[in-house]
Amino acid sequence: MKFFFATPYHSWERGTNENTNGLIRQYLPKGMCLKNLTQAQCNWIANELNNRPRERLGFRTPAEAFRRLQGVALQS
């Protein structure tokens, strides 16, 4: 298996990661104190993002793309 390590401070090498960080910032603004953030709140945010269509996935949600991959793996 090949691995790729992005160069430090080269955000354009981490497109999906940077996009996801931006989506998370809609729920948790930069500078917000995370001290009182509960696991239930984190789970809700994760559920929201996993069920949000993404252009990169052909407008499927990450949850749909994952289920599709699971189906392929089960058939192999």
Global mean pLDDT: 90
* Uncertain parts: none
Strand content: under 5%
Distance between the termini: 18 Å
Shape: extended
Q: Can you write the helix and strand succession as a string?
A: HHH
Number of separate structural domains: 1
InterPro entries: Integrase_cat-core, RNaseH-like_sf, RNaseH_sf, Transposase-Integrase, Transposase_IS30-like, Transposase_IS30_CS
Domain Integrase catalytic: 1-70
Family: Belongs to the transposase IS30 family.
Organism: Piscinibacter gummiphilus
What is the secondary structure topology, with strand pairs?
Layout: H1 15-25, H2 39-50, H3 62-75
Protein name: IS30 family transposase
Family: Belongs to the transposase IS30 family.
Domain Integrase catalytic: 1-70
